[in-house]
């Protein structure tokens, strides 16, 4: 359990209550441990990812993360920022496969800024490559040119094997769903993504049951707004995935509901809400814990193989929504507004 | 006039009719010339940007471009693709400032996939850097690693002066509008954009009347969906600008209406619709010529200093919409569907 910053501690605390209950109910024998990451770790140790945290994370079957970052640490140099804690976990554990579902809960349909007919029943899975691309590419930095001008630079790089392994995860995911995979790139401009496209085409031969299509990233950003239900699974690189998964999440209007999983090839995984640390509402007890609770469910399913326990949590969350309970972010007329803790308690009660 | 590919020739032809009429009406003394670019140029000369086209473009005060690209040329190597014609024009003429308005026409409000209250009155200006960043960064390509694996790579690079000049354009634009500028970056991960952010902060000192804010690109992609009217002017780099400007355009539901301008420091400019070459409907006479006609208006305003003539075209387009005339892409109940040519004729009549 790595609560992190902002609303992280509050939402992880509720999730821990839920996981403790599930642990008893299903006799799972799970053991929980806690660690520092992000700004909280910087304040305590000077490092966004202390060695002790990384060591424990490596020895765990799964990690539940709240969120990292906040204005307090925004002026630190890049290498010492909270985000480096998150990025360090991703890369050190080789969590290359980031699964981000964008699902519209029927109970929350009105929260979307899109017309109901455009988003009702929305269920997209975004598969984002998470340990490569421009996030980790070398060389990177800011240098001084002759004449004294500054120049900033980053490198967008993928090797064939990196693309193949994320591609396989995406094809497998599509196979489990509606059999449609859209690979997003900028193959008309960027060589690295032209290579990406060719590798996806090559992989497609092994998945004749999956229908592969390609889309340029600018068009994908448009199509998500225009007609998001055309998508089943989307696969893309780290940077485009960052942008498109947040856009897709926001189509639902309830990003406070959306979990995510980041897996390595041993199915060890890190689970976190799609939303961030929301420093503006931290400590007020009003944050929505459901995305983190649902991340706990994903953890049970993907890393711990406890499908039944995962389903029980998801059913409990659905029940609570049916009861009309809402945190402030998803509040609407006629519903009952509850605090972070009350929402956690309601899920416990539903369990 | 560079019609290009797909629907390009059809929509440029209608715009030429309109510009000819305006030329007479306002006695502007404009002279028009024509050239090949993109796939059309490849078919004729083997090159996406023939020397003759570039030479003429350089000697022109302004360029009106239709669109480039299509499946016919999709399998050519990167250096010989239609897109290189467009990118070559941008870089050779140093058209670094791309202005992309996202405006919701009240007559077309129902075309948006967003709820009316979210988008009514929407009027955002996206200022995209167009001749730098990862689009043009070196080194780039695909190499074979030891062991035989392929590796693709591109470079995201900006110099201080490149950021400063686009920043100034954006601050000036904000000053002309509601005085709010949002600079979009990924300063928490990419060094080049952390530099971008610092330079924007520095420029802000020269524009005390403009309120500068910063936003991460993933959040911007979300906020555009959630509450687009919070934005006035957005400034960002080439790649993020490509994605966000298309997303913003699609919020209106009528991308067939949106023009764009690409300017250099001498106000020489290239003008084109925000939409692409739409190969699927090319040659059918059903494309919407209004984005290109409105690009002609922007051309009169920004490069030729003919504000009155520009306003006349914009008023004529508005009139035609009031009359209920619609091409297929913006058709709705109770309106009258017209062809590309009929739409051009209607604008002429309104003039
Ligand atoms: C906090 C940040 C480094 C991170 C990212 O860009 O990957 C976040 O936006 C995310 O999507 O998980
Ligand atoms: C055609 C393509 C190269 C171009 C770009 O990516 O800049 C287009 O998408 C645009 O936005 O003008």
From TrEMBL, chains A, B:
Site positions for Important for catalysis: 135, 186
Subcellular location: Cytoplasm
Residues annotated for Mg(2+) binding in this entry: 218, 242, 246
Keyword Repeat among record annotations: no
Domain Isopropylmalate dehydrogenase-like: 1-347
Catalytic EC class: oxidoreductase
Residues where substrate binds: 90, 100, 128, 218
E.C. numbers: 1.1.1.85
Cofactor mode of binding and number, as noted: Binds 1 Mg(2+) or Mn(2+) ion per subunit.
Alphabetic keyword roster: Amino-acid biosynthesis, Branched-chain amino acid biosynthesis, Cytoplasm, Leucine biosynthesis, Magnesium, Manganese, Metal-binding, NAD, Oxidoreductase
Primary location recorded for the protein, binned into one broad class: cytoplasm
InterPro entries per UniProt: IsoCit/isopropylmalate_DH_CS, IsoPropMal-DH-like_dom, Isopropylmalate_DH
HAMAP family reported in the protein's UniProt record: LeuB_type1
Self-association state and partner proteins as the record states: Homodimer.
Protein family membership: Belongs to the isocitrate and isopropylmalate dehydrogenases family. LeuB type 1 subfamily.
Function, in words: Catalyzes the oxidation of 3-carboxy-2-hydroxy-4-methylpentanoate (3-isopropylmalate) to 3-carboxy-4-methyl-2-oxopentanoate. The product decarboxylates to 4-methyl-2 oxopentanoate.
Protein name: 3-isopropylmalate dehydrogenase
Organism annotation: Marinobacter zhanjiangensis
Lineage of producing organism: Bacteria, Pseudomonadati, Pseudomonadota, Gammaproteobacteria, Pseudomonadales
